[in-house]
């Protein structure tokens, strides 16, 4: 993001709107620190500037910086997938789509949070650990797939290593008996990561609308705090992708 020096009147109203503190005063005008800025668009979207001095940088869609916008601005549509947002919706509509069927567990690692974000060097520590744990296939429709250079090693594209994102989601699924190992590996990798992330686990419900007991037992045995979050699709309008479900 840029602030036009010729228009800015130095009122400072825009500064608290930046979730990462990228806007500061220089010679009584506000300026954006380009290294700190995630291109999230919050300052522009807030329409707080009385003189419309805030404007998108001409290079915001240039690769690799464009990664910041695609994974930080919730209104941005990823150039590769055409999907707005950072993940896919299937974890929320799984009861219709059946990406994850009985006997499988869906896992999503949500890197970064507003005010913190995460750089790609830290994200790579997790992707490498997951590759070592045998996770070499991630959800192909998720734009995160495009940042990975080598699925076998978990290496990310080297040209992206100077970039950072407010939020990116690595989605994959495992057999139920792999879940403990995967959760343990994520926890170990977290010790090396200099930011925050959330781990989502989702399953099909069992008859009687209960979460499979074995899944809960594994989560608790690995020392995770559960925060149940039910998002259940009513089954209208979307075709079941998997005939074996
Ligand atoms: S685009 Fe986002 S990170 Fe950049 S200055 Fe504006 S609010 Fe801050
Ligand atoms: S709100 Fe606009 S005029 Fe006020 S400091 Fe920010 S850019 Fe400058």
Task: Describe what this molecule looks like in 3D.
With 245 residues, the protein is an alpha+beta fold. The protein has two domains: 1-60, Alpha-Beta Plaits, CATH 3.30.70; 78-221, no CATH class. It is built from six helices and eleven strands. The protein has a three-stranded antiparallel β-sheet with strand order 10-5-11, covered by helices on one side. Helix 4 (120-132) packs antiparallel against helix 5 (179-190). The longest helix has 13 residues, at 120-132. The structure holds iron/sulfur cluster (2 copies). The site of one iron/sulfur cluster has 14 residues, from helix 1.
Structural features:
single chain, 245 residues, alpha+beta, Alpha-Beta Plaits, 2 domains, three-stranded antiparallel β-sheet, two-stranded antiparallel sheet, binds iron/sulfur cluster
Give a concise summary:
The protein has helices at 42-45, 66-70, 94-97, 120-132, 179-190, 213-221; strands spanning 2-3, 23-26, 29-32, 54-55, 104-111, 118-119, 148-150, 155-156, 164-165, 168-175, 197-202. The protein has 245 residues and is α+β, with helices and mostly antiparallel strands. It folds into two domains: 1-60, Alpha-Beta Plaits (2-Layer Sandwich); 78-221, no CATH class.
N-C termini distance:
46 Å
Bound compounds, each kind once, are: iron/sulfur cluster
Q: What is the mean predicted local confidence, pLDDT?
A: 89
**What's the helix count?**
6
| Low-pLDDT residue intervals, each spanning 5 or more residues | none
Estimate what percentage of residues fall within beta strands: 15-25%
Structural class estimated from helices and strands: alpha+beta
Number of individual domains = 2
Main sheet overview: 3 strands, antiparallel
Please estimate the helix content: 10-25%
Radius of gyration: 20 Å
